[in-house]
Design brief:
55% of the residues lie in helices and 10% in strands. By secondary structure, it is mainly α. It has a single domain, classed as Alpha/alpha barrel (Glycosyltransferase), CATH 1.50.10.10. The strands form 7 sheets. A 3-stranded antiparallel sheet has the order 4-5-6.
């Protein structure tokens, strides 16, 4: 089957502008206090009393900054400016530094823990906003959060990063610190690679290089273990299929940014092996990728939107590296699955996902703690970039 890349690029651009960003512009902004709603339902109705998450806030900042950087719509920059101001005013811990996990609708801190993911998404969003504005205060804030990441959340003894700490960066007595997750490690390399593109310091190069090597410890040949013990001598058989492919293309992007030929070669092999493994073990005949399982069997057959998006990006990269049309076809199949099952062309934005029989999982929200304009916005932008 021949795939017309120009058609794909055009469709991705249209979905980005007229389905994703348009939805968030219309429904997410709380004009009364220049902030953003914490929850929005499927029809675009916001819950003004909902708890607000730092991850959602940072992802809105990233999405509109990235949208502006790509499409140069000044309205996107206005939303990004509001998101940045709100992130700093509402979520910044003025005593200990870093980003709170959540606040209430009036701005009172609720969950003050310092989650690695939350700090990384803030770095990611702030860096993209700096790319748009070149403001020194924005650059300095990203530097400050990286300092808390390295000085607080990094495991200096074993390498890598713990998943969360208390607000003062002390250990939480209810958290098991004998476990490291792949998720925490990949979002460090994601955010710091993006920041390295704006700030080519040796300090950042070391963070990205070390993160690359830590993530490779999780690699099992075709897939990544989701978790390991604290010193990386034992690994789970469990794996998230979308995170596998996301991790693989993060490694490739990091190696290219480092201009490290050895790591580029490693990352290319990992990316191709991971795509081949996924096509064989995790992608259904309808083009949808399942959610999770282990090295031998699928355990969760749901097909959520974000894993399809990360699969699409990874397959597109594999096509770019190899020129093999089978990967372009796989990327196109992921995209078609999204269009047929996930993207809500009537009401805007995307539903959460479907089950094995492609029945709606029924998540009532289009915005929440984890339902954000992040994977889908990036998926459209990366397809436009990779296939151009």
């Amino acid at each position: 089957m021949s795939v017309d890349r120009s058609v794909l690029i055009h469709e991705c651009r249209d979905i980005l502008k007229n389905n994703i960003l348009s939805f968030w512009m219309k429904h997410s902004v709380n004009i009364t206090n220049s902030s953003f709603f914490g929850e929005i339902d499927r029809n675009g109705k916001a819950n003004p009393d909902a708890e607000r998450g730092g991850i959602l806030q940072s992802r809105i900042l990233w999405a509109f900054s990235a949208g502006y950087n790509s499409l140069k719509d000044p309205e996107y920059l206005k939303i990004a400016e509001m998101a940045y101001d709100s992130l700093y005013a509402d979520f910044w811990d003025k005593e200990f530094g870093g980003i709170y996990f959540s606040i209430d609708s009036n701005g009172k801190p609720l969950n003050t823990s310092k989650m690695t993911d939350c700090q990384c998404y803030a770095i990611y969003g702030i860096n993209e906003f700096f790319t748009a504005t070149r403001r020194r205060d924005v650059f300095d804030l990203a530097c400050e959060i990286i300092g808390f990441l390295e000085g607080g959340l990094k495991d200096s003894a074993n390498g890598g990063y713990v998943s969360s700490l208390n607000n003062d960066y002390s250990k939480d007595k209810n958290t098991d610190y004998s476990l490291k997750t792949l998720n925490a490690q990949v979002h460090v390399i994601e955010s710091c690679t993006a920041y390295l593109k704006n700030n080519g310091s040796d300090y950042l190069k070391d963070i990205v290089s070390d993160s690359f090597d830590i993530i490779m410890k999780f690699y099992q040949g075709g897939y990544f273990s989701y978790s390991a013990n604290e010193n990386y001598t034992e690994f789970s058989k469990y794996t998230w299929y979308g995170l596998n492919l996301e991790s693989a293309w993060f490694l490739y992007d990091a190696a290219l940014t480092l201009s490290d030929e050895k790591r580029i070669s490693i990352a290319e092999n990992v990316l191709i092996e991971s795509c081949d493994w996924a096509i064989l073990n995790a992608v259904d005949s309808d083009g949808g990728i399942y959610y999770e399982g282990d090295a031998d069997n699928v355990k969760v057959f749901n097909k959520e939107g974000w894993p399809q998006t990360e699969a699409m990006i990874a397959f597109a990269y594999a096509y770019k590296i190899t020129g093999d049309e089978k990967y372009l076809c796989a990327a196109n199949s992921s995209f078609n699955f999204l269009k047929e099952n996930i993207i809500d062309f009537e009401n805007g934005e995307w539903i959460n996902g479907v089950d094995k029989e492609r029945k709606d999982l029924g998540n009532p929200l289009k915005a929440g703690f984890w339902k954000c304009p992040y994977h889908n916005t990036r998926g459209m932008l990366k397809m436009m970039e990779i296939l151009s």
